[in-house]
Specification:
By secondary structure, this protein is an alpha/beta fold. It is 40% helix and 10% strand.
C-alpha cells in the first residue's frame, strides 16, 4: 500500500523527520550501490543518480496521501519510489535487468513505476509526464474524489511545449495537481541562462495558478510547500507550481564528468547537503543508527536481487500492447486499463 503522512495535523514530528532521514539515506545508499554495480558491468546502459537532490522527492512525496498519484518520479527522484513503498529488492532487480514484479526485466534502468503504490513510470520526454499527471488529476475531479496528482520535472522541461500545455490545462480547469520543478540549474550541460530569461516559477501567474519557490535542499521546506499545495488542491483551489532550487552533485549520468559545472558552484551547494542538514535536527547518534539500518537493507536487497533469474526471452513481446477487454479493477480503481492506484483509504503511518 502506498505510504503517506496522516493528515490530522500538519507539523512534522520526530518520527516524520527520522523517516525522511531514512528515506534520503536509503536513496543515496541505493544509488551509490547501483553505481558500483554499474561499474562492475551488472547494470546495463548508463546509470543516473540524484545525489544532493534527495530532499525534493522525499519531502514532496511525504506530503501526499496514500491514494494520491505520482506521475512520475524522474531519474533523480528515487526517493519518491521509496517513500511510496516500492520493493527495494525489485528496484535492484530492475536496475540489473532481472525478472522482477515492476518491469519483468524490461525498460531502461531508471524507467519504472509501480501501479500498486500509485506511481506512474517515467519516460525520457520529461514534460510528457506533466500531461499524464494533468489527465489523472482531471479524472479525480470528474469523479469527485479527494485525491491529487503530483508530477516532477527539471528546469529544462519548461522549455518544451507540452509543459506549457499541461500548465494551461490544469489551471483552466482548476485541477488537483501539484507540479514540482526541480531547478538544478542545468538541462544536461546547458545552464538556465542559456534556456530562458527570467524565473520559471513566475510563469505560473501567467497561467492563473500559484507559484512558490523553496530551498530544494531543505526537506522541511519542500514538505510544507507540497502539503499546502495539496490542501488547496483538494479544497478545489486548483494546481500549484513548486520550484525547488538545488544542484546535482554528479553529472547527468555515470558517463558525464560534469566538467561544465563551475567548481565553486559545486562547493557552495555541497555545503548545503540535504542529509547533513536534516541530521543536525535529529542528531548524530540517530544518523549513525539510520545509516546502519540502510546498509543492512541494501545488502539484503542486493543479495536477493543477484540471485534472481534473467527474464525469459520468449516473453519479450508480452505486455508490450494492451490486449483483451478492459477490466474493472475494483472499488476506487482507476477506470483506465493497466493502472490501478489504491482506493481512498486512511494514509499509512
Amino acid at each position: 500500500m502506498a505510504k503517506g503522512k496522516e493528515r490530522d495535523s500538519d507539523p512534522l514530528n520526530f518520527d516524520d523527520l527520522r523517516g525522511q532521514l531514512h528515506a534520503m539515506c536509503l536513496m543515496r545508499g541505493v544509488e551509490e550501490r547501483g553505481l558500483s554495480l554499474y561499474k562492475q558491468g551488472k547494470v546495463p546502459g548508463s546509470f543516473y543518480d540524484g545525489r544532493g537532490q534527495e530532499a525534493i522527492s522525499v519531502g514532496a512525496t511525504w506530503a501526499l496521501d496514500a491514494a494520491d498519484a505520482v506521475s512520475s518520479p524522474l531519474i533523480r527522484d528515487l526517493g519518491a519510489h521509496l517513500v511510496r513503498g516500492t520493493d527495494l529488492t525489485d528496484i535492484f532487480r530492475h536496475y540489473m535487468g532481472r525478472e522482477n514484479a515492476i518491469s519483468h526485466g524490461r525498460e531502461g534502468n531508471v524507467h519504472f513505476g509501480d501501479r500498486r503504490v500509485g506511481v506512474v513510470g517515467m519516460v525520457s520526454m520529461l514534460p510528457d509526464m506533466m500531461v499524464v499527471a494533468t489527465g489523472i488529476a482531471m479524472a479525480f475531479k470528474m469523479r469527485g474524489e479527494a485525491r491529487c496528482a503530483l508530477s516532477f520535472f527539471g528546469d529544462g522541461a519548461t522549455s518544451r511545449g507540452d509543459w506549457h500545455e499541461a500548465m494551461n490545462w490544469a489551471a483552466l480547469y482548476e485541477l488537483p495537481a501539484i507540479f514540482v520543478l526541480e531547478n538544478n540549474q542545468f538541462a544536461y550541460s546547458t545552464p538556465t541562462s542559456g534556456q530562458y530569461l527570467g524565473e520559471p516559477v513566475k510563469r505560473a501567474a501567467a497561467y492563473g495558478m500559484d507559484g512558490v519557490s523553496v530551498d530544494g535542499n531543505d526537506v522541511t521546506e519542500v514538505f510544507e510547500a507540497t502539503w499546502a499545495a495539496r490542501e488547496k488542491a483538494i479544497a478545489g483551489g486548483g494546481p500549484t507550481l513548486i520550484e525547488a532550487r538545488t544542484l546535482r552533485m554528479h553529472g547527468h549520468g555515470a558517463h558525464d564528468d560534469a566538467s561544465y559545472i563551475p567548481a565553486e558552484l559545486l562547493e557552495d551547494w555541497r555545503r548545503r547537503d540535504p542529509i547533513e542538514r536534516l541530521a543536525e535536527r535529529v542528531g548524530a547518534d540517530e544518523l549513525a543508527t539510520v545509516e546502519a539500518e540502510v546498509k543492512a537493507e541494501i545488502d539484503a536487497a542486493v543479495e536477493a536481487a543477484l540471485s534472481a533469474p534473467m527474464p525469459d526471452p520468449a516473453t519479450a513481446v508480452e505486455g508490450v500492447f494492451c490486449e483483451g477487454e478492459p477490466q474493472v479493477l475494483g472499488e476506487g480503481a482507476a477506470p483506465w486499463s493497466g493502472f490501478a492506484i489504491p482506493a481512498p483509504v486512511a494514509a499509512a503511518a
